[in-house]
Amino acid sequence: MLLEPLRVLDCTGELGWLAGRLLADLGADVIKIEPPGANLSAPDWRATNANKRMLSLDLDNEDGRGAFLRLCAEADFLLETAQPGTELCTFLDPGQLQATNPRLIHVSITPFGRTGPRAQWQASDIELMAAGGAMSLAGEPDGQPLRVTAPQSNPWAASQAAVGAMVALTARAVSGLGQHVDVSAQAAVIASIAHAPASWDLIGVNPLRAGAFMTGRSVHGAVYRVFWPCQDGFVNFIIYGGVAGRRTNEGLVAWMRDAGADLGVLAGIDWATFDPTQATQDDVDEMEKPVAAFFLTVPKAEFLRQAFEREMLGYPVNNVADIAQDPQLEERGFWADLPAPGGGVERHCGGFAMVDGKRLPVTRPVPEPGEHSREVLSEFGFGADEIAELITAQAVEAP
Amino acid sequence: MTAVAQALKGLKVIEVGGYAAGPWIGKVLANYGATVIHIESRERPDGFRLQYPPYRDGVKGVNRSGCFSYFNDSKYAVTLDVKKPGGLDLAHKLADWADVLVENMRVGVIDRIGLGYEELKKTNPGLIFMSTCNMGQTGPRAATGGFGSQLSALAGFCGLTGDADGSPQLLYGPYIDFVAALIGAPLILAALDKRRRTGKGCHIDVSQYECGAFFLAGPLLDYHVNGRVIERDTNADAVAAPHNAYPCENEEWIAVSCWEDGEFSALAKAAGHPEWAADPRFQHAAARRNNAAALDEMIGAWTKTRGAEQAAERLQTAGVHAYRVNTCADLFTDPQLSHRKTWRVRKHPEIDTQAHYFPGFDLSRQPGDVVAPAPVLGQDNEIVFKEFLGLSQEEYEELEKNGVL
Fold it and tell me: Would you say B385 and B399 are in contact if contact means Cβ atoms under 8 Å apart?
């Protein structure tokens, strides 16, 4: 394991689930804290809370809070997503927690950060993708701004939180002291839009939604198609220039020729001298016509195979089923088959990288409510009587 | 470099490669005080220096690219040609000096140039060597090279963006490169933790495609367990209704969502139409979803006559989820981002001033910073090779003469 089994108290909601999962994959002992009776069946919850232990503890209960503070005194990390302005957020005060445990690394993950004029604003994924600039860049130019249909602001915030946690751990190795790491999901999402802000900053051009076409490459204003309907979906392919474009374009024409497809104007183009910046829209349309007709006959899997073998740039537009069945992931042992509730197995993302040729292990299945309440509390020094009292007070759930 | 960022002080990182996926990791580490050296050669500068706009004043130049500088602030830059006499030796010296090497070339390339992990660990067994590429170092398609913008399609993101009956959509730039950089950075720091205990480094193999799967972990599990294939669905959500972007004055947009019936009543009241909440078409979330077109039209008619900021403030005051759809320009005036000092303006010798992104997290005791603008090509050759590596003046001049630098 890369990390020692450092103790992580993970009280996060969806904004932070992945952060704890990443620390768990690195080797930390991550203890997920959920209120007794919480419904934990959602796939998003299960997928990002594997490899953790579970303590069912009620932070709205006075005895539960007392127990929680004892845990914080012994923990290395606290991950939480308390909404600023709430009473829970006041309770999870970084200064007070650090006073009792100066080594504690306290990571708060909130929509906008713990402080600031909008810290208390309500935001879910769609508002955060809007606030971080991502939606302004996705969608048809004449349509509405779009988010990715599966929430992305959660993993953007959580992955930045994991970086922050590890930066603080590195610093603690020198100073012996923990600190507060304040994560803003809005600010985290900005990482997703590459250098688009630099365009406004440096040349005053505000980039907007590009839709399904590549713009800004031809001096005549021609746009190039990016997404092409194929036999069973779409593929992402662009007629590029340069060295990589030449290999790609030559590869495509050779493939079309092998397949007996109509080449149209492609037959007469010398890709060594082809310059996409000089093409007019008519030129592009004529080039794209035979390609479009050809791709309609090609299934996604075949496109992936041919593109790989012919060293062409481009990929099929996968859905989750395509990803789940991709032999590349299978071959690298990416999936972890973990015990499922009620028997059998369920397939999760395995450890998120390979180190020295071995996949980071996922050693624990998705925990059940209360599953580790007793063992965790007892490891933190709670006696059997104290645990029984917490259960009686309905502060803790333990089967 | 300013002395502000201290959390990673003393951590020595070198980068071989270019574009986004590798350099973004180094940028984040540099923002917290790591010493990060970006290695290029005069013959082959980082592709971002000359392949993508924007350039200051629209004038192309190896030191004028806002794209390169956006991903490489706070770093040192050296030029080093391994094919020239003494070049490979010098690269080895740098790797012996470093704690961390990050490379994002095609599989096998770093081995071929003589800087592979097995080679470098002979003289620096503590080296943490991270390889990040499209598919990972192994597997049937390991050799695939490619752009992150296209890999984002293979990884499912483009297919999940757009109307159900329309085309998949582009996400701006190489979306998945940043996913992989942020998932990769903690690995480096965890490996450092292990090295403190064991003295040993390691080879970290990051597949950008696999990192992407973590951003769709729930839908993938849902497929594996329930056979459900999530499809793009404009801005719809399974729970919230309304849940969409609505047009405002001056071509602005606002994102709005309601997660409970009470929240929708609050929206109706804030919009001056309390009767909406009593309309049987909109009383419950399921009904609102069934009548989404009518609902969206009504909300849109209200937002259309307002500025997005004004509408968002009004809705938030009423307890409704709402935010302006910030364009890139808006990000520079957003009051919350200003409070966090998300943009840090630094002066560059050829670009002049540029606003650099500060990451989405900060530390209370040892805050990070954009400690310097991006380096011009080869600007730190002297300080890195003489001061950091201890080369003599004669050795340095010899390398210059041989065209290594």
Answer: yes
Inter-chain CB proximity A355 and B235 less than 8 Å: no
Q: Distances in Å between the alpha carbon of B354 and those of B19, B31, B160, B335, B344?
A: 19, 16, 33, 19, 8
Q: A336-380: per-residue pLDDT in tens?
A: 999 998 899 999 999 999 999 999 999 999 999 999 999 999 999
Give dist(CA B326, CA A192) in Å, integer.
14
Q: Which residues of B touch A352 (CB under 8 A)?
A: 183, 187, 210-211, 214
CB contact under 8 A, A152 and B215: yes
Cross-strand pairs, A82: none
Nearest by CB: B182 against A152, A159, A196: A159
- pLDDT value for A217: 72
**Contact criterion met (CB < 8 Å) for B224 and A324:** yes
Indicate yes or no: CB of B139 within 8 angstroms of CB of A234. no
Out of B136, B231, B321, closest to residue A123 by CB:
B321
- On whether residue B236 sits in a domain, the answer given is no
Q: What ipTM was predicted for this assembly?
A: 0.97
pLDDT digits 0-9 by tens, A119-169? 999 999 999 999 999 999 999 999 999 999 999 999 999 999 999 999 999
Structural domain boundaries, residue A146: 7-192+327-397
Are B88 and B161 members of one domain? yes
Contact list in A for residue B339 (CB cut-off 8 A) is 113, 115-117
pTM, rounded to two decimals: 0.97
